[in-house]
């Protein structure tokens, strides 16, 4: 995503500015290590480009920046649930307005912290009190951490995901390893399946890998690089690509958009909210993903 040409609204430091795309404000990071963009709408990372490389993050050229719709591409924050186990699908965090609470920088990079707090809108969807923080560390690697804290008087339960869209040169030539062999196949009515240790796509995929390795690697022969994804706080890794038939059914993805993306997601997966992670009052939980090339 071209962050440089976007109009500047505010200069916060030598490395951090607020820019705007259509109706969405974006925290733009320009550092000698890398550039990045984090949209306040959704707390959504829209770009991470190490110096001298193409973007590691894929954004749809048809993503809708109206400040209402969830953005297509980037790293959507799916919380307080993942999937269609409640309404709206993937929760409300990815379509809520987050606040910039802190930014700091040094020679190694820039750290940006956003916050999402309860509101009338969130209470109508989910009646709990919470403090959600997104900490984005931009340097030689990109680290995104979702930290949620229960500030309610009673326990609540959640699931979630950092729904990363990776940018690849050609999905049919990208080779993924480290996701493990066991997966729940959403395209086969959540049937538990066994697969190989290397994955090259030839069709749509929507799988919850239940035993991923510490690192998942995507070897990208076209862009001549290997993407490494290291997740923390997860119980599974979701891999997704809608393929041509899925892309054609989305208004915010080009028909050929599926050819240059692969989702590898750090996920707290649960078949229902009741089966998710339960936090007692004052307890916190962190879900993270670290991405590098």
Automatic annotation (TrEMBL):
| Top enzyme class | isomerase
Residues forming coiled coils: none
| Gene Ontology MF term list | carbohydrate binding; glucose-6-phosphate 1-epimerase activity
Query: Top-down, what is the taxonomic lineage of the species of origin?
Result: Bacteria, Pseudomonadati, Pseudomonadota, Gammaproteobacteria, Vibrionales
Report the domain of life of the source organism.
Bacteria
Active site per the UniProt annotation? 163, 265
Q: Which family does it belong to?
A: Belongs to the glucose-6-phosphate 1-epimerase family.
Give the catalytic activity. Answer: alpha-D-glucose 6-phosphate = beta-D-glucose 6-phosphate
Keywords noted in UniProt: Isomerase
| Pfam families attached to this UniProt entry | Aldose_epim
Organism of origin is Vibrio panuliri
Q: Which GO terms describe its biological process?
A: carbohydrate metabolic process
Could you tell me what this protein is called?
Answer: Putative glucose-6-phosphate 1-epimerase
């Amino acid at each position: 995503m071209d962050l440089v040409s976007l109009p500047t609204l505010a200069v916060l430091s030598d490395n951090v500015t607020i820019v705007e795309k259509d109706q969405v404000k974006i925290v733009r990071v320009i550092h000698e290590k890398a550039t990045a963009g984090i949209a306040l709408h959704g707390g959504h990372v829209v770009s991470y480009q190490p110096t001298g490389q193409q973007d590691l993050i894929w954004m749809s050229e048809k993503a809708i920046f109206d400040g209402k719709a969830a953005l297509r591409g980037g790293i959507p924050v799916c919380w307080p649930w993942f999937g269609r186990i409640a309404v709206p699908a993937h929760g409300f965090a990815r379509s809520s307005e987050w606040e910039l609470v802190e930014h700091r920088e040094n020679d190694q990079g820039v750290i940006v912290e956003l916050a999402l707090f309860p509101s009338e809108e969130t209470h109508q969807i989910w009646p709990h009190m919470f403090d959600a923080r997104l900490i984005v560390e931009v340097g030689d690697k990109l680290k995104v951490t979702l930290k949620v804290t229960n500030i309610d008087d009673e326990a609540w339960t959640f699931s979630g995901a950092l729904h990363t869209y990776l940018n690849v040169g050609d999905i049919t030539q990208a080779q993924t390893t480290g996701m493990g062999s066991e997966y729940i196949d959403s395209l086969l009515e959540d049937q538990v399946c066994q697969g190989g240790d290397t994955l090259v796509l030839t069709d749509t995929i929507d799988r919850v890998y239940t035993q991923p390795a510490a690192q998942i690697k995507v070897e990208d022969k076209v862009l001549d690089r290997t993407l490494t994804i290291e997740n923390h706080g997860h119980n599974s890794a979701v891999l997704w690509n809608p393929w041509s038939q899925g892309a054609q059914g989305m208004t915010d993805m080009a028909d050929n958009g599926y050819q240059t993306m692969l989702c590898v997601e750090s996920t707290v997966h649960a078949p229902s909210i009741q089966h998710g992670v339960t936090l007692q009052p004052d307890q916190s939980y962190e879900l993270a993903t670290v991405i590098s090339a």
